[in-house]
């Protein structure tokens, strides 16, 4: 009886609980008033400048209001993408490797080729028809003291993908890293305006091309080799004007995860880089020049990336010294995330 009586005394009545709640509500309102007063004292915020955190300063929007005809040649851009990463120092992470990189004539692919070469790799550049751009990539790779071959053709053709791998083996001796990077992107504001021809070309280039290249390369890749796919922020967040492109990039992410698991018994790692907006010929050959002037300004960093800011991620994922325990991952490089 004594114990039950003491317990009853300790229990609060309904009235007491109500008073406790009201007391806490008063405390919340007091804190709210303090913050409102602090907010009123804050001066109006000035528009933030684009973030610059690199080894050198990068262009800020509007970079250039220019529209290119497909397939989009880098040599025709008035403001050239920054690909050579002069402050990046190689340390033999890919010494005597051989890498096949699709879409390496320009943009991200070119920068990846340069940094791979700086890390000691020979390069096979697969590209569509931008011969002058591809030649410039070749010269930049050779400047790093490595070999480079050019293989023009269509990655939507399974036989060409097999040919590209065979050419790499024949001229460079082996294959250690495959980088699937070639892409087709063209906006369509309305679902009903997205034609079957447009849809098919996007899927053939961005999905079939990756699949065909991987299928052709895997028999020649050894234990410790790597495949790196180029995904996109659109495959994570979607894009209302890039329905087909976003679909393919989400598919590439799923393909990366699935193929990564599939190739574990062979010792081949498979990962993807998912960039946000990057200044390459891809976007100026997509939308009109009015839109290009704002390109990248909606990211938290308020500017697009330059290819050399993305390429080191490919080195990281290709190098067994850096990423031997990483497979099936998607690495977003998108200039920050927006709060709610």
Q: Whole-Å distance between the termini?
A: 56 Å
Broad CATH class: Alpha Beta
Low-confidence stretches: none
The total count of helices amounts to 11
CATH superfamily: NAD(P)-binding Rossmann-like Domain
The profile of the biggest β sheet is: 7 strands, parallel
Oligomer designation: single chain
Q: What shape does the CA trace take? A: elongated
Q: Hey, roughly how much beta strand do the residues contain? A: 5-15%
Whole-number mean pLDDT: 88
Give Rg in angstroms: 26 Å
Just name the CATH architecture.
Answer: 3-Layer(aba) Sandwich
**Which structural class is indicated by helix and strand composition?**
alpha/beta
Helicity level, as a percent range?
40-55%
CATH overall fold name? Rossmann fold
Strand arrangement across the biggest beta sheet: 3-2-1-4-5-6-7
**Number of discrete domains:** 1
- Would you report the number of β strands? 7
Task: Please explain how this structure is put together.
- The protein has 340 residues and is an alpha/beta fold.
- It has a single domain, classed as NAD(P)-binding Rossmann-like Domain (Rossmann fold), CATH 3.40.50.
- It is 42% helix and 11% strand.
- It has 11 helices and 7 strands.
- Strands 3-2-1-4-5-6-7 form a 7-stranded parallel sheet, with helices on both faces.
- α3 links the parallel β1 and β2.
- The radius of gyration is 26 Å and the shape is elongated.
- It starts with a helix and ends in a 7-residue tail after the last strand.
- The model has no long low-confidence stretch (mean pLDDT 88).
